[in-house]
Specification:
About 55% of the residues lie in helices and about 0% in strands. It has helices at about 15-30, 35-65, 75, 85-95, 125-130, 135-140, 150-170, and strands spanning about 110-115, 115. A hairpin with a 2-residue loop joins strand 1 (about 110-115) and strand 2 (about 115).
Amino acid sequence: MSSGQPHWRNRAVFENRDNWKTIGSHLATIRRNSAVSRRLQSLARSIAVKIESLDCVLEQLCRQSCRHCIDVCCLRATIWYDFRDLLFYRLHTGGLPLQKIVKDGAGACIHLSTEGCRLPRCQRPFVCTWYICPTQKEAMRRLPDICAGPDLVAVIRQIQDERKMLGECYMSTDPAP
């Protein structure tokens, strides 16, 4: 391993596209092991289905809260793709994000538009799905009809558990760096 390159198990932020490509090369190695590949693909499909099942509920919550918020997450938070985000992204889409998440000149996430996030929910860092702000939690209590559908908190916990299994399954393969 060359100095300056993170080891594939490093959970630090993958700061540049070359480091993201490292994950892609490791995933190519894993695909030769069909049992591991099937397990990873199965977990990624399950995660995607669960994330997509929450999209309508989360969009409704955002419509109720974000446009009136004075402390918008997409304006103040520093967001990045973590290791599991990139692993899921690769398994779900077959590729890697075009770029890391950065802020624009005004300090907002580059994917923020007047309509909300430009990225499909399955292509966002997972923190953008699981983080429910205090205003949204209050809306869930006040307006339970907004959250008709899947049990938001329970499904998010299931996704978190499956993401953990996805990372553990991947790391158990120990491909050569």
